[in-house]
Specification:
single chain, Rossmann fold, 2 domains, two-stranded antiparallel sheet, 15 helices, 10 strands
Length: about 350
């Protein structure tokens, strides 16, 4: 027999997460409605419907709905037959509003606007993907708040709804009960962000692996990299981030990261901020905190051991950064997200 290979830490974490799955009674499922409007974009509709699909690792029930049950004409040659009308919004805990065509020229139906307001008043969260932000903005619930949409429509959104603080340089914005995201792919980032808040990092990473998606892109990351940054450099930085994620327990200095990317520390730092929204060392710190979160969720390791494994040194250092970034302690976090409790 050949030598047995010891599973990697990532595989051990995935196995621990898989062992922790348990059937969720239907009465305990979180309820998600995906609201399909005329001209709905296929990816925008499909992303939340697929991410939150009911399975052992995803304690959600999804209903796809429209202004009324029946056929909804979409964009790009597709139409949707939805089984539910606006009654689904009265049922849901979380409502997604996918993007749709010509949002700057056509208002969302008043019945839809009223149903969204009623859902929010009842306590539901409302999350817009791409141009779905126009329908959400029509409710007035974004007035005085930060919001975003696809970069092509940010100026139109600001003109049409001047009480919004439109941010065109982010992937998504979380204002608590109302959330907005940029173009279609950033809808995945928004969904994973919501999962992290609902179920923890392990569940979010599990979903990201299922989707073959990046496990974490910050909401502050730029929507697109300016053309003045050569594409191969962006690809090299992505490889450097992946390289760093496998070495969080090792010293990761700016010089070491820049050396891997084969650029000077100054160039690396400047362009890394444009690509991710964080300085290199801020990004490393947050990656270490996320790794610590997953270990707190899926292992019984001590706080000191977790701090050492993720490169934060001591338990005191882990507690300090945990409090600063997440506003809680590692022990309280572990109690909140412990599986099977």
């Amino acid at each position: 027999m050949g030598a047995t290979t010891k599973p990697s830490r990532k595989k051990r974490r995935a196995a621990a997460w898989a062992r922790s799955l348990f059937p969720v009674p239907a009465s305990n499922l979180r309820r998600v409605a995906v609201l399909v409007l005329e001209g709905a974009k296929p990816l925008d509709v499909g992303i939340p419907a697929q991410v939150f699909t009911t399975r052992a690792s995803m304690p959600y029930e999804v209903r796809v709905c429209g202004a009324a049950p029946g056929l909804v004409t979409g964009s790009d040659g597709l139409s949707y037959h939805v089984s539910h009308g606006l009654d689904a919004l009265a049922w849901a805990d979380l409502v997604f509003i996918p993007g749709y065509r010509s949002p700057d020229r056509e208002d969302a139906p008043q019945s839809v606007v009223d149903a969204l307001i009623a859902a929010h008043d009842r306590g539901a969260r409302l999350a817009a993907i791409s141009t779905g932000a126009f329908a959400l903005a029509a409710t007035g619930l974004l007035d005085g708040k930060r919001a975003t949409t696809h970069w092509h429509y940010t100026r139109a959104l600001a003109r049409r709804h001047p009480r919004l603080r439109v941010d065109e340089n982010v992937l998504f914005v979380d204002e608590g009960s109302v959330l907005t995201s940029a173009g279609a792919a950033s809808g995945v980032d928004l969904c994973l962000h919501i999962l992290r808040g609902d179920l923890g990092v392990a569940a979010s990473n599990h979903a990201a692996r299922r989707l073959v998606a990046a496990p974490y892109r910050s909401g502050g990351q730029a929507q697109y990299v300016p053309r003045s940054v050569p594409e191969p450099l962006g690809e090299r930085f992505a490889a450097t981030r992946e390289w760093a994620l496998h070495r969080l327990g090792e010293p990761l200095t700016l010089e070491a990261l820049a050396r891997h990317a084969a650029v000077s520390p100054r160039t690396f730092s400047r362009r890394f901020v444009k690509e991710t929204g964080y300085t290199p060392l801020q990004w490393v710190k947050r990656a270490r905190i996320d790794a610590a979160r997953e270990l707190l969720e899926c292992s019984e390791l001590s706080i000191e051991q977790i701090a050492a494994d993720v490169g934060l040194g001591t338990g005191a250092n882990l507690r300090l950064h945990f409090q600063r970034i997440l506003g809680t302690t590692p022990s309280d976090y572990r109690r909140t997200f412990a599986r099977g409790e």
